[in-house]
Every structure is written in C-alpha cells, then in structure tokens.
Amino acid sequence: MKILDFSQSYFDLFEQPLRFEIDLKQIHENQQNLQTKFHPDRFVNASAEEKRLSVQQASWVNEAYQTLVNPVKRAHYMLEVSGQDMKNESETTSDVAFLMEQIALREQMEEVRDKQEPLEECDILVKHLKLRSKEMSDDFTSSFELGDFETAKLVSRKMQFVQRLSDQVMDLQFQLEDENS
C-alpha cells in the first residue's frame, strides 16, 4: 500500500501551487483519484493496520479537499502554511465601514420576507455578496502575494463574515422556495 506524506501541504497533495486562485476542476479530479487509491472500501480484506491507514489517508484527503475548495478555509490554510498564527478564530475586524455594511446587509436579509418578491430580493443579496467575495478574494491574493500577511489576515476575517452571510441568505432562499412549492 502506498502511503501519503502527511507532512506535505494540501496544495502539494493536489499538485497545485500555493496561491489563492486554484484549478477547482483539477483538485476535484485529483481528489477522486486519491480516494480511488485510499478509500477504506478497497481494503476490506486487508490487515487491521492497512485498514486503519486507509481510513487515515482517506480522511486526510477529504480534509485537504474541503479546505482547498472553500475560499475562507483556503485563505486561512495559506496563511498557516506561511507561518501565520490563525488559531484565534474569535478575532474579528475593526473596520467600521465593513461592519456597518454587514449590519445593513443583515437588516436587508431580515426584511426579505416582508418584500413583494422575496426571492428576487434574495437574488439581489446573493449577487452583492458574490461581488464582495470576489473583491475580497482579489484583495487577499494581492496582499498574500506581496507578503503582507497582516492585511491578508484582516481580509480573510472579512471573508468569513461574507461567507457566513452568504450561507444564511442561501438558507433563506431555500426556505422561501420550499414555502412557495
């Protein structure tokens, strides 16, 4: 049984350079290939040690995949790999304008159900959040590539806010669609 090198980065595992913009299609293909090699179902008749090792490796591949395909997790991981301490998840941003924008967007989301066309209002929010997410991805990329890790950390925290709000809007959208069907 081939054994993965757990000391390599997730980027190395998936044969990607250490950068924010990645080839998601290639990552998915590499993940499928790795799971084919290491999935525990392939080792049902193997020794207990080989079974344990296949579970560890398949789990590690899944963790790596989930990290790289999620922009916020990918940004945090890139900073960690670059020697930055990202353990304090409770850190927030002190950017008052950004926080005010987040409050306004939350209020807008809370008022969606009262609107004439709530699904259209959700679409407007989703488009705005996608645009903000793209802007922050660009900001993260430029900061990271310049080695300005403090700014990259600040941007990654903002990315968390936007992703959380995006997830909440998507949940709301699904609820509204269920109610309308």
The best one-word shape is: globular
Q: What's the tally of helices?
A: 7
Structural class: mainly alpha
Proportion of beta-strand residues: under 5%
Q: Name the helix and strand elements from N-terminus to C-terminus, one letter apiece.
A: HHHHHHH
- Average pLDDT score: 89
End-to-end distance, in Å?
51 Å
Describe the biggest sheet? none
DSSP summary, beta strand count? 0
Helix content: over 70%
Q: What radius of gyration results from the CA coordinates? A: 20 Å
Q: Which key features would you list for this structure?
A:
181 residues; mainly alpha; 70% helix
Descriptive overview:
The protein has helices at residues 10-13, 24-38, 48-69, 71-81, 96-110, 118-145, 149-180. With 181 residues, it is mainly alpha-helical. Helix 2 runs antiparallel to helix 3, helix 3 packs across helix 4 and helix 5 packs parallel to helix 7 (149-180). It contains 7 helices and no strands. The mean pLDDT is 89. The longest helix has 32 residues, at 149-180.
What is the structure about, briefly put?
By secondary structure, the protein is mostly helical.
Helices and strands in order:
Blueprint (H helix, E strand, L loop, with lengths): L9 H4 L10 H15 L9 H22 L1 H11 L14 H15 L7 H28 L3 H32 L1
Helix pairs in contact: 2-3, 3-4, 4-7, 5-7, 6-7
